[in-house]
Structure formats: structure tokens, C-alpha cells
Design brief:
The chain is mainly alpha-helical. It has helices at residues 2-8, 14-22, 42-51, 63-74, 83-94, 103-115, and strands at residues 25-27, 34-36.
Amino acid sequence: MEEYIGMYGWHFSKKLCEWAVSKMRRRNRRTGSDEPMKMSTKEEVDALLRRYGIDPSGYTAYDAVYVMHMAKADYYESSIADEQHLALFVRDYLCDPDGYDEVAMTRFYADCIGCGEMPPWEDCL
């Protein structure tokens, strides 16, 4: 973990984001079953943000990619009604005026501790 933080700080690398998204499940509202998330590329997430007037260049590494998938897995088509509000959620989550730059990774790590499953740090370098 120390080596990872030394390289990326408290931000998502592509590999850590892929691992985190691979652990996410989304409820299929038609079948009622939980299905694994399919990871969108950083370019696809950036395009989603741009489509709704949000400049993705201000977000560090893969933080916006992680937050978009987390929101999609947990809130999409429930409290987040559509793609526009999904994009706005990503912006609001990462740009909270009383928040901090490392919020996505810090909260993710707290969830890992809570679930008792640590990321494979060496594989994420």
C-alpha cells in the first residue's frame, strides 16, 4: 500500500479502478438479480461528463471513473434518474466545496476496511 500511495497518492490508478469496479454489483430491475458492472473506459466517462458541460480535466487519474461506476452501481435509476444527473453527481462528489481532493479513494479504502477486503496493492502498481 505504501508503494501504491507513493506512486499515485490517494487517487485511483487504472488497475485499482478496474479491481474496484470488478467488485461492484448492480441490481437488474427487470430480473431482480445482481449483475457485475462492466467498466467504461476513462474516455467514455470523460465524454459523459463533457456531454453535460463538465470539464473532466480537473479530476485526478481515475477518480471520476470510479465515482461514476460507484454511483451507477448504487444509485442509478433510483435516486439518480438519468445520465445527466449521474454526471452531475460525479462532479458534485469530487468538487464538494467542504470536501477534499482525495475523497473518492479515502472513502473507497474505508469501505474496504469495513468489508474486510483489501485491494491487491502489488497488482495495482
